[in-house]
Amino acid sequence: MAFEIHRGTNISHWLSQSSARGEERRRWFTREDVECIAGMGLDHVRLPVDEEQLWDEHGRRDPEAFELLGNALEWCAEAGLRVVVDLHILRTHHFNDRQAPRLFTDPDEATRFAGLWRDLSDFLRAWDVSHVAYELLNEPVARDPERWHAVASVAFSAIREVEPARTIVLGSNWFNSTEQFGVLRVPDDPHCILTFHYYKPMFITHYRASWWPGGRYGGRVRYPGRPVPEEELEGLSDEDRRLVEAANAPYDRGVMASEIALPVRVAREHGMRLYCGEFGVYHRTPREYRLAWYRDLLSVLREHDIAWANWDYKGEGFGIVTAEGQPTDIAEVLLAV
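Predicted structure:
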């Protein structure tokens, strides 16, 4: 049976990007959450996991983290949800690394990366290939895309040695961007899904988000159109004005469709499914523009039969539900598709 997915959500800040451990970590994602996701009509979850959560610095498994991972897979199987296990952050690679990550500069790190996947495969292969897929790495940021292709090939081959029929999700370089599909090296493999992420334009999707430089802009924005209105530039510092002008091209559904056209073409040329594994708009964006952006992107994904998982399931910033489990204003848009 094939690994089939259509629409899902990311389980963030649980086994990834979180310092919570013990009971606090256990409470963040539970069987009840899985039942809630299935009840929404979603068919899968993308499950980010970090190296520092699953293994210590000597490569030894953290028993509790692997127990939680196994629990989640069992809950999802019982609820009829498929799972994309995404190796999200490594000790040698973070998507926000300011310098070239060591994964791409130290030849030994490709071998170590493949070893992590061999160990994950030893654990995950207990679940059927129709239920669980492996995503090699979240948002690679190699300064030369050929370094990502070389590293990915080593890990891909390591998995194929022991699991010839497991679906592997392969993303483009530079934050899984659509533009990088023009140079993506696609393997000749019948069990591969290609993935990209979509967060454009950043002044809409990350309005007033503290973790990127443009987040300090707090003036008016709009969508569709030019995200920052021309009149808003007058009061900005020279530095902020340059920052805005570098990322202030007009956006609408047509622009989204034109940017996603390249991944669509590459996937079709290789006879592969296409997956938008992350997208979303930060909660500080005015609601009118936030919902309009979601409607436009979802319509493009639907038009091309692109599977998707929004960022993310739970939380104030992007979630379908709040930390307390209450639906947010984007739930109705996502679930109406």
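Summary: Residues 49 and 95 are 14 Å apart (CA to CA).
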